[in-house]
Amino acid sequence: MRDATLAELALHGYAGLTVENVAERSGVHKTTVYRRWGGVDGLVVDALDLAGEDSWRPPDTGSLEGDLRGLADEVRATFADAEAGAAPSAFVAAAFHSERAAAALHAFFRDRHARSAVIVERAERRGEVPAGTDAGAVVRATTAPLYFRLFITGEPMDGGTVAQAVGAAVAAARAGVFAAGG
Amino acid sequence: MRDATLAELALHGYAGLTVENVAERSGVHKTTVYRRWGGVDGLVVDALDLAGEDSWRPPDTGSLEGDLRGLADEVRATFADAEAGAAPSAFVAAAFHSERAAAALHAFFRDRHARSAVIVERAERRGEVPAGTDAGAVVRATTAPLYFRLFITGEPMDGGTVAQAVGAAVAAARAGVFAAGG
Predict the structure, then answer these.
(1) Residue limits of the HTH tetR-type domain (chains A, B) (predicted)?
(2) What's domain B2-49's superfamily in CATH?
């Protein structure tokens, strides 16, 4: 059912998602879909929850800059690919219309940020950033400018955009902006 | 008509916006609204275009940090106020559903970033940042973490969030991350 939902999201976006289409694609009767998933929101939430169960791990390149670069490149590559970017884009759109989808989207990012914290912990052990640096803040500073362009300003992204976002996060982290009392 | 559209957006959001409601609120017959504005998208685009015609100017506090802090505080204050934040939130949502609304939203941010460039030009003249610093990049670095929380991760914002975003943008700008060849 998750695959069917993701495929339909990729094709039609959240606004075009219907229980009928997901049911038809999955071969499950639509009354069963309504009974078990409740409707479109339930399908989206179920598909998004899957994201937190995957085996994703952040890059481990040996440097803070390399690791953040890997994270940012992943975001850029996902949304540069129309097929790969369709489902995540649909989830962001769904969050505007459904409290359940919003809660699932927010949980997805909490999970991703928590898993990414190790990047900053390693950097701290290597002495690249001050002790007590807020890992989530460093990760958010890296990816926020990319999501801002994707979903708010609609500005294009290129390698220079990614390098600037990574460079800014690294410079701020080194300067202690994200450290306790920084 | 713009006031009526903004009031209806604030009340019902983009998903609940109807030509009928805007027509009734404005006292204009709905056939006239359809003829002149084409429908919901046209009303939204018209209301958004207004934003580019206002007299908004960025803060001028005498320091880069103070000016960026003023910008960031304005974003935070707008969205912390349910009434003030309703229309801009609805515009972001509308951009997911309408090419015209997306184009108007993107034009709004281009205009705001262009008007904000003077902040960085003044900082350059004061010697606070290297020559050739990309003004738009500094402004985006300041506000992107706030919009990321508001519209993507759903995380709360407080004074600390704002201070961190401003501090990171200033540190990166001073380090030359946003300068030509930086």
Answers:
(1) 1-55
(2) Homeodomain-like (1.10.10.60)
Q: Where are the domains of chain A?
A: 2-49, 61-174
Among the four given CATH numbers 3.20.20.370, 1.10.10.10, 1.10.390.10, 1.10.357.10, the one describing domain A61-174? 1.10.357.10
Whole-angstrom CA distances from A44 to A24, A39, A132, B180 are 16, 9, 37, 43
Reported ipTM: 0.89
Calculate mean pLDDT across residues B8-30.
89
Nearest CA in chain A to B108: A153
pLDDT of residue A50: 58
Kindly state the tokens that stand for B20. 């009928």
Q: Which CATH class is domain B62-174?
A: mainly alpha
Q: Which residues pair with B179 in a beta bridge?
A: B133
The token pair that represents B150 in the structure block: 């508001």
List the structure tokens of A102: 């919003």
With beta carbons under 8 A apart, name residues in chain B contacting A88: none
Average pLDDT, chain A: 90
Q: What are phi and psi of A76, to 5 degrees?
A: -60, -45
pLDDT of residue B181: 62
A147 touches A85 (CB < 8 A) = no
Cβ atoms of A23 and A30 within 8 Å: the answer is yes
Which residue from A minimizes the CA distance to B133? A164
